[in-house]
């Protein structure tokens, strides 16, 4: 069994894969203060929930955009599972060409998303990841990442809204029943939802205009499910896309 770990700014998401099939996913809040023992305990508990033990894990691949968490998490893998994890980064074969001004600046999570989208759905493809930040990356028909786009995630924008205004409360990020809001909470929910959705649709339309050829749009990320049913501009919402990409990358570097 392969354990794939996506260390993001908000959550650490762990996926367990058997023969390329995802058999379980679990989330941990990303905290730099967690010790290796705390991470190790969580991992063993997740394994037990699925009916597994540490001995069932054959290898681990990690994709991280939070360097300060890596030391403790890597130490937990070594201590509790008994081997050094494979880390997506320099020296790892991803199977993707990156044609950007500075390829090293492209996040490992974006690379894994693109690998998962291209090798699962084919190309050309626009990959949208709705997380702490919202990213769009375009992969052409040859598997080359040719452009990237980064903007604020909807929750990040929402936290700025209620964090910088004295009388606006924290609200759940959800689809409102109507844009015709009648109180502060629903007014905020409608404003956040429709402003963000409109931005997503305009972004995809602009990609189509400038690229000038048909492509699929594959969305992923925890907040992607909020929008998947309200726009016909997203072809597929795949919450496990990064794990598919990591499994593919692992297969190219298997030890």
From TrEMBL:
Gene3D superfamilies: 3.30.420.40. It catalyses: (R)-pantothenate + ATP = (R)-4'-phosphopantothenate + ADP + H(+). Homodimer. This is Type III pantothenate kinase. It holds the Pfam family Pan_kinase. GO terms for molecular function: ATP binding; metal ion binding; pantothenate kinase activity. Its main location: cytoplasm. Catalyzes the phosphorylation of pantothenate (Pan), the first step in CoA biosynthesis. GO terms for cellular component: cytoplasm. Pathway: Cofactor biosynthesis; coenzyme A biosynthesis; CoA from (R)-pantothenate: step 1/5. The active site is at 109 (proton acceptor). It comes from Bifidobacterium callitrichos. Its EC number is 2.7.1.33. Substrate binds at residues 107-110, 184. Its cofactor is NH4(+); K(+). GO terms for biological process: coenzyme A biosynthetic process.
